[in-house]
Amino acid sequence: MKLVTIGAYGFTETTFFSALQAAGVDTFCDLRWRRGVRGAEYVFANRARLERRLAELGIRYRSFRELAAPPALRQQQYAADRVEGTTKRKRLALGEAFIAGYRQQFLAAFDTRKFFEQLGSEARVVALFCVEREPAACHRSLVAEYLFQQWGPQTEVAHLRP
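The chain above was modelled as a monomer; its predicted structure follows.
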C-alpha cells in the first residue's frame, strides 16, 4: 500500500485534483474535524464539493473524524503558533505539546486493522487529507508515520505539496 498526504493550502482546485490523479490515489481519507475550509480559493475542499469531484474522478471518499484533532487540542497548537509568531496557514511544524497530546489521545488507541478494513481491500494508494500546506505542520503526518510504523516496509509514504 502507498500512503500520500495532502493539504488544501497552496493548491488551486486544478492542481489539487491533478496531484491526486498523478499519485494514483484511489481512496481519499478526510481527517478533518470540520469538513470545510475558509476562503473562496478553497471552496473545492468543502465536503460536498470535494466528495462530488472525487466521485467524478473515481476516487473513494472516507471520513475519519475519529482521527481529527478536537478543538481543545487545536487550541493548544494555536497558542504555540502565537508564541512562535505564526499562523495556521504559515506554520511549518507542529508544537511538541500538540504532538504528544495527539499521540496519547488518538494514536495510542488507534486500531490500524479496523482502519484498513474501512479502507476496503481495493485500496492501493490512500490519501490522508487535512488543510495545512506542510505535512509536518499537520496531524496527517503523525497518522502517516504511525501507519508506516505499524504496517512496516510494505508501506510507502509520500507527501504531496503544491
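Residues 2-159 form one domain.
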